[in-house]
Write a structure and sequence with these properties.
CATH superfamily of the largest domain: Aldolase class I
Largest sheet: 8 strands, parallel, barrel
Number of domains: 2
Strand order of the largest sheet: 7-8-9-10-11-12-13-14
Bound molecules: phosphoenolpyruvate, manganese (II) ion
Oligomer: single chain
Number of helices: 10
CATH topology of the largest domain: TIM Barrel
CATH architecture of the largest domain: Alpha-Beta Barrel
Shape: elongated
Radius of gyration: 21 Å
Distance between the termini: 22 Å
Structural class: alpha/beta
Strand content: 15-25%
């Protein structure tokens, strides 16, 4: 349920309303924008008398929210959420590119790539340390060592770092990481999501391979209801009958998600296509569709990458892509 307040509500009446709502055991989520002042109510609102609230002098309107996601709902929070990641802002018109290798492979590799993507305009560095691989015989990541290398690369470049968590018990290792990534395969690891909800750290939540937007938003809700509202959503392609691409990039979800939620939405064209040649056109399309950012795999030597070489672009190709994106950005679609 949301209560839309009139401009400059009387303080005493406002406090009384809040107290009354709290006495019914409801959590209140206040959202104050330039032209809006909304109270979002979370909890069992079945006992709340809509007519009674509507009759209050300070109330403009009261509406029930049908969708099961509340905190993530744009109706709760009409303005775009802007997330500050160690000084880099994403969302609400702030566009950012996260780039780096699929996996951290060595100190030299991650530092070399970090410096080169930074030069081309990337504002955050990605790199997997714990890798979810289909085969147990494939490279599983450098694990704790990989996180240390990312921290070293951050020291050199000042780029905030993004890396994936697969297991709740690994959380202490992620203490100094700037954004924790929840991979597609973990999107519905609800115990993990609950733990991430207790952190004061942005979470990059990727859409699962076969998950609907509503399921994605419900996973975001798991994190937000714990108190962590800094969630960035990522479309990374879904499983369809098509085998010509690794996944099918579901680009229409970008404007659709922006209508459903206030959270930033980014696109990962690398995992969505599985093909380095498709990364540039799909990046451009994602920008045009209004994405708040991109997550792109860049490798200095793609044929010898330990993971996802076929979809990794070279630092030179990344530089070229960044230039083309900058031309499209001013014309990108914006959800109003
Ligand atoms: C990744 O970003 O390296 C990754 C494993 O992505 P996804 O979870 O989308 O497959
Ligand atoms: Mn990858």
């Amino acid at each position: 349920m949301i209560i839309i307040l009139k401009d400059n509500p009387n303080k005493k009446q406002f406090d009384n309303l809040i107290q009354w709502l709290k006495s019914m055991g409801l959590d209140i989520h206040e959202s104050k924008g330039e032209n809006t002042h909304i109270l979002g109510l979370v909890g069992d609102t079945s006992r709340v008398d809509i007519d009674l609230i509507n009759a209050l002098e300070i109330v403009e309107d009261v509406k029930r929210i049908q969708e099961p996601y509340k905190n993530a709902n744009r109706k709760f929070h009409p303005e775009d959420t802007v997330i500050d990641v160690a000084g880099v802002k994403i969302g609400g018109g702030n566009f950012q590119v996260i780039a780096g290798p699929c996996s951290v492979e060595s100190y030299d590799q991650i530092c070399l790539i970090a410096e080169s993507v930074k030069k081309s305009g990337a504002t955050m560095l990605r790199g997997g340390a714990f890798k979810p691989r289909t085969s147990p015989y494939s490279f599983q990541g450098m694990r704790e060592e990989g996180i240390k290398m990312l921290l070293e690369a951050r020291k050199i470049t000042n780029l905030p770092i993004v890396t994936e968590i697969m297991e709740v018990s690994h959380l202490p290792l992620f203490e100094d990481v700037d954004i924790i990534q929840v991979g597609a395969r973990s999107m519905q690891n609800f115990e993990l999501l609950k733990e991430l909800g207790k952190l004061d750290k942005p979470i990059l939540l990727k859409r699962g391979l076969s998950n609907t937007l509503q399921e994605l938003l419900m996973s975001a809700e798991y994190i937000m209801v714990g108190g962590n509202e800094r969630v960035i959503l990522c479309e990374r392609g879904i499983r369809t009958f098509e085998t010509a691409t690794r996944n099918t990039l579901d680009l229409s979800v970008v404007p659709l998600l922006k209508s459903m939620t206030h959270l930033p939405v980014i696109v990962d064209p690398s995992h969505a296509t599985g093909n380095a040649k498709l990364v540039k056109p799909m990046s451009m399309a994602a920008v045009a569709a209004g994405a708040d950012g991109l997550l792109i795999e860049v490798h200095n030597d793609p044929p010898h990458a330990l993971c996802d070489g076929q979809q990794s672009i070279t630092p030179e190709a990344f530089d070229d892509l960044m230039q083309d994106i900058s031309h499209i950005l001013p014309y990108a679609f914006r959800w109003e």
